[in-house]
Specification:
140 residues, mainly alpha, 2 domains, two-stranded antiparallel sheet
């Protein structure tokens, strides 16, 4: 008989996220540009001063990311294609419970999924295009 001790492992069920193409992403990028524009690099005279500037830059970007991100719960049902418009339409349906709002939500989900997966398919096809070589055979 062998006893194997199993320790309880913590699994993080949430993360900070900035939605791609969202207003938060645009604001985050603008703020990062401002950080870089205001970066004072005039007194870099040794590795210590460079290290201080780099650490300061990292802290400012991290703070900006936290400021513009929102906490998202990760679950087995998380969907990478889900966007703010889906959430908005779902909230409208939850508020009104009308059949028309449900149909609007369903249409939005269908369009969003189709757009997302077509983009993923295109990305994969573009990656494969550079790697895969095809041989053409003349049919006689």
């Amino acid at each position: 008989m062998i006893t194997i001790p199993i320790i309880k492992e913590y699994t993080n069920s949430s993360k900070c996220s900035i939605g791609k193409g969202s207003e938060e992403e645009v604001s985050f990028i603008k703020d990062v540009f401002i950080i870089f524009r205001n970066l004072n690099m005039s007194n870099i005279s040794d590795p210590t001063s460079l290290d201080k500037i780099v650490n300061d830059l990292a802290q400012k970007i991290e703070y900006t990311g936290e400021k513009h991100s929102k906490i998202v719960k990760i679950s087995k049902n998380s969907k990478s294609w889900w966007n703010n418009k889906c959430s908005h339409d779902l909230e409208i349906y939850k508020t009104t419970k009308s059949l028309e709002d449900w149909k609007t939500f369903q249409r939005m989900v269908k369009i969003t999924k189709k757009t997302f997966f077509n983009l993923k398919i295109q990305e994969i096809a573009n990656k494969k295009q550079g790697v895969v070589t095809t041989t053409r055979h003349k049919v006689q």
